[in-house]
């Protein structure tokens, strides 16, 4: 008897190897994937702008990384005793403006250099909803706990999402035509928007990705959302908030990632690296305890 519907690992016309350069942009789910590859010693660049939830902010980040646009001065603001950027996650914020700008510039330099020779770019959409700063007349990636009255909550539509990625794909054709772009929708539920609203939001993301993949070369979809919604379908695979995936759920997605993208040779190498990492971790712990006993 079958007690659940299992997702068949999708197949792609390319493979990830230890020579691959992998870049990740988007919601917190993309950070989980980036951590998986980074811990296994792949070449990884993870979210140069920090976590980005909505497609417009992700596209804005790509426009900046490809130097089509620059970071406008109006995106910076001093609030609650620290400098922050409306185009970045809060991890870049800092009381010292020099350090704040240095953190942003370091992320930009790393991201720009890496993107030029990236083999596979993973983009994770989190929500169709975004916030528009009324005074600054701009879409923000993060509100940074600034009073809600300064923003207007909006929702992207399918065409708006696909159009905002057109400049990036034009850049890709000229500068990195072999770059593979893998889109995915985060399984994290944004229930603060409302149950129905969350479903509508995710549906828009799916349809926008389908449109992009149909129109652009080397654009693909990975079903992380479906793995949770249609395969796991159980709250034991979610964290305590019942919205974010649990470690067990994430590990299951990792298994499908490996089956989808890795050759047998790469999977063998991954197992070897995992043993090396585990062994090095024990050495590190042993070394610390040895020192502390002296």
Secondary-structure map:
Layout: E1 21-26, H1 28-39, E2 43-46, H2 55-65, E3 76-79, E4 82-85, H3 97-116, E5 120-125, E6 129-133, E7 138-140, E8 151-155, H4 158-164, H5 166-175, E9 180-185, H6 195-215, E10 219-221, H7 224-232, H8 247-261, H9 264-292
Helix pairs in contact: 4-6
Q: Taking strands numbered 1, 2, ... along the chain, how are they ordered across the largest sheet?
A: 2-1-5-9-10
Mean pLDDT: 91
- Indicate the radius of gyration in whole angstroms: 20 Å
- Element order: H for helix, E for strand: EHEHEEHEEEEHHEHEHHH
Could you tell me the number of beta strands? 10
Helix content: 40-55%
Number of helices: 9
Q: What distance lies between the first and last C-alpha atoms, to the nearest angstrom?
A: 60 Å
The computed structural class is alpha/beta
Low-confidence stretches: 284-294
The dominant shape is globular
Q: Note the beta-strand portion.
A: 15-25%
Biggest sheet character: 5 strands, parallel
